[in-house]
Amino acid sequence: MADFKTHLTFGAATGFGLSVFTYMVDWVSNLYMAVIIFFSTLIGSFLPDMDSSSGLPVKIIFGFYAYLSATLTLYFTEDLGLSIYFIVLLPAVAFVFVKVILEKIFIKFTNHRGIFHSIPAILISFLLTLIIANQTKLPLLEKFVIALSIGLGYFCHLLLDEIFAVNFITSIISPDNNSKNKFKFKKWFKNRFGVKKSFRTALDLGFNQDEKYPAIIAYVILIALIIISFPIIKQIWYLLS
Fold first, then answer.
1. What is the Cα–Cα distance from 146 to 25, expressed in whole angstroms?
2. Does residue 207 carry a pLDDT above 90?
3. Poorest-confidence range of 36-45, 107-116, 220-229?
4. How many CA atoms lie within 13 A of 184 on its CB side?
5. The pTM is what?
6. CB 127 within 8 A of CB 229
7. Which of 227, 225, 237 is nearest to 132 (CA)?
8. In this structure, what is the dihedral angle of CA atoms 22, 23, 26, 32, given to the nearest 10 degrees?
9. Distance CA 158, CA 36 (A)
10. How far apart are CA 25 and CA 167, in angstroms?
């Protein structure tokens, strides 16, 4: 699989391209939103590594979620007429809950290269972001672009993992010229291109994992999100068509 720096570079390049494209075609209203699209894509490229038990990606992801939770808590409670103590306290509680409690629970009950490395996870990240973004006062198209940036960043991470599961460099430097292996295609392909065990474990439907229950749960969540987000998607479809 690709390392952190490679994912960071590829995510940044994808985010830059998407932000420039959406700004040029007037999908976003200003440069500030284009910058948000850039960072959303970058965050999306980290999301598949949420199930990693350690390392910088986990700290970045849950740090982002903690700040996002605190911001959303402040956003949805500022008009409730609460005292200044609760206005300050509730976002702080949301931050600590996500960064300290949820992060530890999540690490304990997840395995790296599990269901978070799958196609359903891409769709879940897109739809969940779209539903959350729909609660804001942003224009509909900008809500869609934010969700798209998260989903695209997520997809790029998995795509990069699949690309790095085939050792192209080894195949160029040390090609296998044993013609006997070519009659056994799988063996020849593996020897010729250096296919790793991680090949086809990122961009799959989620059922190639050792545990089937996470995949079933993921599909239940995905179906629920499709039902909830269908009116939003319908509006976006009419807007773009």
1. 15
2. no
3. 107-116
4. 7
5. 0.73
6. yes
7. 225
8. 110
9. 22
10. 38
Where b means 16+ CB within 10 Å and e means fewer, 99-137 reads beeebeebbeeeebbbbbbbbbbbbbbbbbbbeebbeee
Token reading at 34: 């284009």
Tokens of 50: 């949420």
Q: What is the token pair recorded at 140?
A: 């509909």
Tokens of 38: 């850039």
Helix (H, G, I), strand (E, B) or coil at 131: helix
Task: Round to whole Å and give the CA distance between 176 and 192.
Answer: 5
Closest CA to 9 of 153, 203, 202, 167: 153
Per residue in 140-171, pLDDT tens? Answer: 999 999 999 999 999 998 888 878 766 654 44
d(CA 175, CA 118): 31
Mean pLDDT of 90-104: 87
Contact 6, 36 (CB under 8 A): no
CA 186, CA 195: separation in Å to the nearest integer?
10
